[in-house]
Design brief:
Blueprint (H helix, E strand, L loop, with lengths): L1 H17 L16 H4 L4 H9 L8 E6 L4 E7 L5 E8 L2 E2 L17 E5 L4 E2 L7 E3 L5 H5 L8 E3 L8 E2 L2 H16 L5 E6 L5 H6 L6 H17 L5 E4 L2 E4 L1 E2 L20 E2 L1 H23 L53 H7 L11 H4 L1 H7 L4
Parallel strand pairs: 1-10, 8-9
Antiparallel strand pairs: 1-2, 2-3, 4-9, 5-10, 6-7, 7-8, 11-12, 13-14
């Protein structure tokens, strides 16, 4: 059996090297894959894998944080636990904090998503792209729509998480190698920010708070166990690490829009997550008691960029091009574009916009945006 597994891995590796993958592999419907999609990981990353005792073909989990503009790749080590491999600064994400609700709202999605090989795009107009799988069953159950929401290169976003080409090359290769290891999918966890008590307290007035606290349950399951949470949806809610009650004769069946079946949470996971929940809630309550400053609900900006890229891509983070998408927000008048002297914008946002903002048509890749769908 071991010999057969080794043989299979060698055949798959050879297929990638030759660009002769099956039709269903990596979203490719031709026989030839471009070189950029079959590129080996750089030597320094291979060395890091060895240092962290992470097999090259072991599973991965990708975690995205909007406010911090960071993408984390976690990889399973030889002990079977996920450990952080590398943190990539996000070059550009669009929209505001909060989930994606509808096509064209420019929102980068938030939630738990599953990426399968056919969602890998080796021929993207944005160098390489990974479709996160939006809308998932939770989004559909809550009547949210949109399409082709990606993690991709080119540092240009209209609803996606955009990296540099060099970054997406590594991320794409790590994802590809996890499939070569026999894993049928990998999980993407997309968050508005790191779900700490301090961040939740700052955003306590945001109408998405209940949604974010639901995401925090899955986050806590992951960070306390370093195991990928099993995700289900019922009653239009996320459910994490559910299993049948003791002595239950029937397997669990979840319907995203129906009442949740009777279930229990894996006790080993639940115990650790509950301890974290209690500790975090005490800290959160103290922060509210101390009346820490609250963040504004609507930033007025179109997404964000990690500070590491601000000098390299000046003017990429602009004033919002669309109105607040949610019905709970007032119908604000359009924010005027900056004058030549940057007076209006610098008055509101400081020196970040001390120079006139222009539409970067070359960076926006308008033609490729139309081709790839919902803003990416």
């Amino acid at each position: 059996m071991i010999r057969a597994m080794v043989l299979r891995a060698l055949v798959l590796t050879a297929a990638f090297a030759a660009g002769l993958t099956p039709v269903t592999c990596l979203g490719e419907n031709n026989n030839r894959l471009p070189t950029k999609a079959t590129k080996e990981l750089p030597p320094e990353l291979l060395s890091l894998l060895r240092q962290k005792k992470m097999p090259k073909y072991s599973p991965i989990v990708v975690r995205l944080f909007k406010e911090e503009a960071e993408l984390e790749v976690w990889k399973q080590d030889t002990a079977g636990r996920f450990q952080i491999l590398k943190i990539y600064p996000i070059c550009r994400w669009s929209g505001d904090l909060g989930p994606k609700l509808q096509e064209g709202d420019r929102q980068a999605p938030e939630g738990f998503y599953t990426v399968t090989p056919e969602l890998m795009n080796p021929n993207s107009n944005f160098y390489l792209a990974i479709n996160v799988g939006y809308p998932n069953s939770f989004d559909k159950a809550n009547n949210r729509d949109g399409s082709l929401l990606m993690i991709h290169g080119d540092c240009s976003s209209s609803g996606c998480y955009a990296m540099t080409d060099a970054q997406i090359s590594e991320i794409y290769s790590l994802a590809r190698d996890s499939f070569l290891g026999g894993r049928p999918s990998f999980q993407v966890q997309a968050y508005p920010f790191r779900l700490t008590p301090a961040n939740l307290a700052r955003h306590r007035n945001n109408p998405n708070l209940a949604f974010w606290k639901m995401l925090k349950i899955g986050n806590d399951h992951f960070v306390t166990t370093h195991l990928e949470p099993k995700v289900d949806v019922c009653n239009r809610l996320y459910v994490f690490d559910a299993q049948p009650p003791p002595n239950s004769p029937n397997p669990l069946v979840f319907n995203p829009t129906d009442k949740c079946p009777a279930f229990v949470v894996n006790p080993k996971i639940a115990r650790r997550a509950l301890e974290k929940k209690r500790t975090d809630e005490l800290e959160y309550a103290q922060l509210l008691k101390d009346d820490v400053p609250a963040a504004p609900i609507y930033s007025g900006l179109d997404g964000g960029m990690n500070k590491a890229f601000l000098a390299q891509y000046p003017g990429r983070v602009t004033l919002a091009k669309v109105m607040p998408y949610a019905s709970y927000l007032p119908q604000l008048p359009p924010i005027p574009w900056v004058d030549n002297d940057a007076s209006l914008t610098s008055k509101w946002f400081g020196t970040l916009f001390s120079k006139p903002i222009v539409c970067d048509l070359a960076g926006a890749s308008f033609l490729s945006t139309v081709v790839e769908g919902d803003g990416c």
